[in-house]
Amino acid sequence: MSTVAEVARWLDEFAPLSLAESWDNVGLLWGDPATEVSRVMTCLTVTPQTAREAIDDGAELIVSHHPVLFRPVKRVRADDRETGMLWDLARAGVSIASPHTAFDNTQGGINDGLAGRLGLLETEPLRPASASPSFKIVVFTPRESCEAVLSAAFAAGAGKVGAYEECAFTSVGQGRFFGTEGSNPVIGQRGQRETVRERRVEFVCPSSHLAVVLGAIRSAHPYEEPGMDVYPLHPGNSGRGAGRVGSLASPTTLSAFAELVGQTLAAPGVQVVGPADRRIERVAIVCGAGDDFIGDAVRCRADVLLTGEARFHRALEAESVGIGLVVAGHHATERPGVEDLATQIAVAFPALTVWPSRKETDPLRTIG
Are 267 and 248 in contact (CB under 8 A)? Predict the structure, then answer.
């Protein structure tokens, strides 16, 4: 049976915590990592209603988009409205993990899901996140030691490329050396030139693991002085980052685009900034509260920014810089991602029963 820690580890691989905004609080925030899990519920926010649903339906883990402990809490009491649900969850043995902005920003996350639902093409991050610095390590080793060196490097964290592990390239060549009187060569003799058939082995290594990987290679390598080259790699674009920007299959108007958003997201009362007949083709998307991305949308030559919330002065800013703004509601722009996440967890853990909260609703209602 899977554990809370295993599901949390999968979440971190899918939506790396490093992608979260600096102000955020993400990861496994509540509970026992060793608890066995058979039932998981996803939701947008842990509220007394969603907490009760998880307890009543036997969930051992809640994956909540919004962090359950976003601000410091000085006391957790059963008779306090804000923290009473945490007391109930603790007594029921329910853990909580929150991916939040890491899930917003990752490939296949909430913003990608919105872009797909609206039919955007050639999407890319609105505010790209640079890939983590990494290095290419090249090691020269005798043929019989090649596997030992590779195994040591892989165990220390090298050789990971995307969803693949233990990635390397090997070629055959000749190594030449001359051992001085102070040397103690494993192959050949000191005081004469040697030519040895060797393997050139190369693989990538994240900067965070470089020192450990080099140490592991030296421990596994038979030579006194292993031949190694370490090359810094250009980080490039990771394909990850905040928001998304892409193009509609065919241009439309701001009014028609707002109607499409309302229908697609079942969002009542969509608000719009800009002329109804403004031509819309290039669309920027930021789920939730994303009105501070107006400048990014302009930089990416978007015709409109779709987000969940916008403050009054941000609406004036959009109007002044000449970009359309469509505000569909925080719940409407993020709830579809919570439903998608339930499916993604179920695919990754077929033995689990996973569902998006059935009782969660938007606290804001449109009247009239």
Answer: no
